Model the fold of this input.
Amino acid sequence: MYFPGLYILRFWQFILTLCAMRKVLIFTLAVFPVLMLFGQNNAAILKQIDSISQKKWSDAQTDLDSLANPELIVIENHFKDQIVIRDEVVIAAATEEIPITPYNLLRLGGNKRWFYYGQNNLVFNQSSFSNWNSGGNNNIGIIGKINYTWSYKNGKHFLDNNLQLGYGFVASEGESSRKTEDYINLMTNYGYDIGKNFYLSTGFQILSQFSPGYNYSATPDPTYEDRISSFMAPGYLNAGLGISYNPNENFQVIFRPLNGKFTFVLDPYLQKTGRYGLTEDGQDVRAELGALVNILYRIKIYKDINLVNRVNFFSSYANHPERVDISYNGTLNIRFNKFISTVVSLDLLYDHDQIAKLQMKQTLGVGFSYNFGYENKEKNKKLIKPFVAD
Done:
């Protein structure tokens, strides 16, 4: 059957459908450009963010290619501490009363050939009493010492000259003055460097005293006729030829298989048989040929405290070689400052030809000291405060 209303209904449905599709199309056409513009702006922002991140990464990265050709630059350091300018350091061990040894002397550079060093010491001692129940005598004492060294070097040749003098006395009320120190010691040594700290050497040593000596126990108030010693009575001369070994400044050994020892008694009053090894009255010189060994050893106890040991051995070839003459000196140096020091010394001597007993002398002194010349230490320091810009 034919229903016209049905066709009309379908026709209007079709028209409505077209209208709905048209609205969708218009909305799409209107919105799509906006979406495209937003998407383009968003991509530009993301690209800019990525470029910033890449730049930061590139700046933080190490340029590996630059390591193949490194470039050195100078970096200036500005220190705030004091600057110490040191003068020339020349000779070692001079401040401790040690004779200059060839170990450092031959290692000195430059054209300088002569070197010198000097020490001067003066010690005072005084006591005064007034109505003192324990008793005592007023007294005053003084001891003076000098130690001078002149050294010369030229290539492998060296020459040492050392002079040591000492004299002291004490004067007490009601008693004559008595000497407490008296010695003369002159040493000269020539050497030639043969390598490995060994040196051919030759030299001599003279020992004596200034004034007469007395035995105060036997003669408390002696006269000149009571003297038991005087200048060059005795006097000793050691001269020989040998070799020395000096591996460092603190140790030295001198061995002289050919050494002459001469004992002089130039005071006729003391030229008696048995005195100082003399074999007959009137004899003024006693000569011996033998071997000599001299050893120097220093121990640094602390910064300004050191112990110096010197020992000599002499054996005569012709007269009782088994009776070795031994002479030892130990000196303890304590330095408080540039001008104040303390010296404690011990001397031991055994010479069977003079007396078959051990001889001993001990001294202690605190006083003034003054040194000059070349020494192994930082001297004449100049302190400079540099300008530092903060």
